[in-house]
Amino acid sequence: MRRLFAWWVLVAAAGSVLAAQGRGGQPAAGPQKVTAIRAGRIIDPATGTAAANQVIVVAGDRIREVGPNVAIPQGAEVIDLSRLTVVPGFVDAHTHTAMTYKEVPENNIYYYTYVADSTPLRAIQAASNALQMLSSGFTVVCDVGNNGMYADTALRQAIEQGVMPGPTIIPSGIIISTTGGQFTPTPEMYKYHNIVWPEYLEANSRDEIVKAVRENLLFGAKVIKICLDCKPWGYSVDDIKLFIAEAAKGGAKVNAHVQTRDGGQRAIDAGLHVISHGQQLTPEQHAQMAQKRIYLASTDTPFTDYRGSAQGQQHAAEQLKSAYDKGVPITFSTDMDYWNEKMKKPDGEWMDRGDLTINFLLTWKAAGIPAKDILKALTITGYEAADVVKDQRGPIKPGFFADLVGLNGDPLTNIDAVRDVQFVMKNGAVYKRNGVITLDKLLHPGPVSGFRRR
Ligand SMILES: [Zn+2]
Questions:
Q1: pTM above 0.90?
Q2: Are 97 and 54 in contact (CB under 8 A)?
Q3: How far is the CA of 382 from the centre of ligand 1 (A)?
Q4: What Cα–Cα distance (Å) separates residue 243 from each residue in 87, 112, 153, 271, 304?
Q5: 7 by DSSP, 3-state: which?
Q6: Which single residue of 4, 137, 225, 373 could bond 172 by disulfide (Cβ 3.0 to 4.6 Å)?
């Protein structure tokens, strides 16, 4: 009885705290930290133009003012980036933070990774990968499935709640697919061990499609990822339209894995938001995508010492060039979800997930796409594909979240400048300064940004 009473007091006290914190469970707002950044130049990738000697005033997590003659507020911390170029944060429009398949022991076959690496282990890999990507300037990451049992939505939750810093994760939850997903299991593993789940969530009928979309949204997905044509019995135009309508109820868009020409046509006809891969699309289909403004995340694997082939890179570059020439909104995207012992820099240091991700520039350069347009794909077009502009995230504009990167050089003329990231700010907090990660004030033992944030 006494115990029960103690519980009641606790619950009542928690209730009043909740009321004080508001619906988001956020702590009461204290005085906002104000920062003034002196930028040598700011690039607007939307127009491909630069403005010299700018001041960016950041209040809390948002940009308050930007311009050449902006007064520095009294008491503001001043950050001197007068020797650097400031650009908006980068976007990887297709990756898998909680998937790392390896040569040893699984011979690069991710079925085995899925069997060998538990979701908790993969969630820790995802947290590490997210920090590495933020260090390379990626402030938005579309994490489109193959994350075990929702490691991706857990990663987003941890970052949104302020437990750890990281990019804004756009997680898909489990990839929704017709029977089999991308696997070819044995009958015994399929029927008696349900081996496809949770790497794939099977949905064949219209009722199953609605249910699968709702489950993913319930567990925190911000985009719906489907396997459109992973099997010959993939989704029809009507099925895809149903996915789009159901996802929209939860404010999400649909991104599809597309590997065939026919599947690509169904995606285009249904008016999909993002086509991933699409390596078999024709120039005519690229023209249709441009006309319908369907985003392409073609995951263009470069040929390097550690991965890929000359032929593979050439095909990816030709496809990318065709899409660019036809005016498709192209995004920087990678599928960077593997590791091997050859991933080292000339000085013998390991490449990290951010280095490996930005190295996909090799294919973009091989395609002959101008630097200013690669920068646009890496930023503005990525924000649109990730659907974050509606949340006021992306461009360096007053009212938007302060997600900024400072780098040496001029990425409008030499895109490799984006490899030399010296400064990273996300949500107004400095993550990297003078090329060094500063974590001291960004790791927290609790949800300092609000425990209900998803
Ligand atoms: Zn992928």
A1: yes
A2: no
A3: 16
A4: 35, 30, 19, 11, 37
A5: helix
A6: 225
